[in-house]
Amino acid sequence: MSKRVLIATMGSFGDLHPYLAIAIGLRDRGHEVTLASSAMYREKVESEGIRFVTIPPDLSHIEHDAEARRRTMATFDGTRYVVQDLFLPPIAEQYRILLEEARGADVLLGSLFAIGLSLAAAKLNKPYLTSALQPAAILSAYDAPMIPAMPLLPYMPVWMLRGVYRGLEKAFEFLLKRAYEVAAAEGLPREAVPKVFGHSSPHGNLILFSRHFMAEQPDFPQPATICGFPFYDRLSGKEQGLEAELEDFLRAGEAPFVFTLGTSAVLDPGRFYEEAAGAVKRVGGRGVFLVGRTNLESYRAAFGSDQIYVTAYAPHSMLMPRGRATVHQGGVGTTAQALRAGRPMVVVPFSHDQPDNAHRCVRLGVAASISRHRLSAGRLTEALKRTEAMTGQAARIGQLIATEDAVGRACEKIEATQPSPRSI
Asked: Among 3.40.630.10, 3.40.1390.30, 3.30.43.10, 3.40.50.2000, what is the CATH number of 4-229+404-423?
């Protein structure tokens, strides 16, 4: 039976693409899907034939605001700034929009910070599925994340971590003060506001990363559906493949190193590409630089050559498997693509979940990692040389991840979710 599904997500491409992949999967299975997110994603989503609804905040200004870019990617304060200063101020308006959209939906699926959807689900008693895109979102006491402000977490015993997490939950409640105010005004219990990390729903919880990246732990939100990484990486539904000039570059010589900072860190790159260019020259190889739109022309002028190809973006699934190794920021979407590509990597984490994703890639034996603040052409050169010994393990992990059908698993769970009795 066809279902009406409302999906809401906030953030960068890494936060949009997994849900867009699921939306496309649901559409192809005959369901009616609406995806709600920031206005700047309307064209991309609608190009795939998915109904789109704009919800605040509008994040498009960040591309043109240097201070906002810097604060968004700050190593120690970036997550607090994004949640408290960007996502939460318009939460009341976001909730009102999603409340009206949710009235006609059978199932609701939200990302970590789509808090307005959780409130709408509680108000209407609609079945609501939570989701975790990255291991750090779960905050497991059995496989603790690597957080720059708390670097000892992965080495603490379970009993100690549980105490630390209780303290963090209290701090996060202060962070979500505005959401609690909206809930109170709507007559909703405090439980209607999701936890920042480790939130669970009795209707179901989609784990949208591979079990090969993090194995299921006893404190995963229950009931859990381990899906794997849902993949999508086109700029739009009209895109067919790599640009002709990049294809020519790839065919003209040996496999290049691929350098990318995703769609968030690329807005505050620091000296990443300058040091990358130096490393490519030292190694004596070739490179492809994905630099985004903001600095495209200046980077082309500075680095473009027979040795280095500079472009704004390329579908990772088409480029990374043809690379020698990938150097990236550790965002979960980029990390997932790099893992599936089966090539070794160097991870240069900036903020948010990136240090933890880097830590897990190193632990898997498929990556070296360099702190953003310690990045230099010399260190990057040595790290690239070390990746040569990781080729076999990277290929093995890539083969395992390629066998997972994350979209199919997610769609099956959504299809099996039944309406709450009072929402029929």
From this structure: 3.40.50.2000
